[in-house]
Amino acid sequence: MGKFPKYRVAKASQLLIITGAGIRDIKIAKKAWILPGQSYAKFDISPVNYTFEVQAMSAEKLPFILPAVFTIGPRINDKESLYKYAKLTTCQEKDSTHMHELVKGIIEGETRVLAASMTMDEIFRGTKEFKKEVFDKVQLELDQFGLYIYNANVKQLVDVPGHEYFSYLGQKIQMEAANQAKIDVSEAKMKKEAEVAKANADLAMKKAKWAKDSQMAQIEATKAVALREAELQKEVEVMNAFTQTEKLKAEFLTKASVEFETKVQEANWELYKKQKDAEAILYQKEREAQAQKAIAEAAFYARQQVADGELYAKQKEAEGLVAIAQAQGVYISKLMGAFGGNYGAVRDYLLINGGTYQELAKINGEAVKGLQPKISIWTGANGSGEGGDGGAMKEVAGVYKMLAPMLETVHEQTKYVPPSWVGTIAES
């Protein structure tokens, strides 16, 4: 511990472990300043080889020796594991055999526990699996110290003196292998002999087949010659028949051709005749259609002329009605002016002037023929039947005064009620 800071650098296979002021637990670094109040130490991180001969015992209480070499070192890629290993090395400085005893104890303990759960036969026959189990269980225990098994070489299992189980088991396996080899040789020999016998049999069968095929080939050649002769003879006869057939076909074809041409000519003439007849009928029908079309067009033209005349007459009649209506409008307008705008006076004047009341009187007279009607006598405007002074308006006023008793008389005689626009009669 010094009064001034010191800069320290660890070697390639080492790290610095620093404790003291300002550091809560420990600090690990490759290079660092060592401040006043701090202390440091270097620890090696190189893997170390551990050689053991583990004495274990199987489930049958049979002892054996497991020679092994483990290469173990800190897990430098894991920060937590590195801290565990750094603390472990601090304890190791006090006792140099501490690390060796720790690793040996873990390996021997896990190997013995595993061997005690297996029979000797399982350990011997499953040596590879047994070694893997030992490796996994030892690694699990070393994790708590930040150590990692970089390599493990477990050698062949060795007998403990006085317990030569593996030797006897090896001899047994060798004898079984020798016997199996003898059996395999015998089986191979028998198989070889069987293959030779089979090959001889196959050869004999092939020779028989070849002889049979040779005889069949000779027979087939003879038959082929005969068949070929028959085929040639058949071809000759077929050609003769074909020649005769062609001759007969030529004769019949000539006769048939003449008859066919004759029939064709007759059919053509008949078709020509029917075509001409059809054309004549078609021409006649066309002429008749043209005549009917001309008649229809003439009738349509006549009807159109009549319709045009009627339309013209209607137009003129409508124009007359319009002129009459216009004249009547002027007439009514003049009357309204003459009567001082009195619509009732104008209406009564039109009824009287149009003979409406005279027509009513005539109808009533015809209706009461043969009856004994009640006679009413009424006078003019002045009571004497004569008009007084006042001109045209006085006459109209007199007529209007006579209208009420006249309507009452008509009602009494015929029960006729005049329209509301003429006047009303009170029921008695």
Molecular structure report:
There is one protein chain. The chain is of the alpha+beta class. Among the domains are: 1-44, no CATH class; 49-163, 2-Layer Sandwich (Tetrahydropterin Synthase, Chain A), CATH 3.30.479; 341-414, no CATH class. It contains 8 helices and 9 strands. It has helices at residues 79-92, 98-116, 120-125, 127-142, 165-338, 343-353, 356-367, 392-414, and strands at 6-9, 14-20, 27-29, 31-34, 38-44, 48-57, 63-74, 147-154, 158-159. Strands 6, 7, 8 and 9 form a 4-stranded antiparallel β-sheet that branches. A 3-stranded antiparallel β-sheet has the order 3-2-5, covered by helices on one side. The longest helix has 174 residues, at 165-338. The protein starts with 5 loop residues before the first strand and ends in a 14-residue tail after the last helix. The model is unreliable at 383-387 (pLDDT under 50).
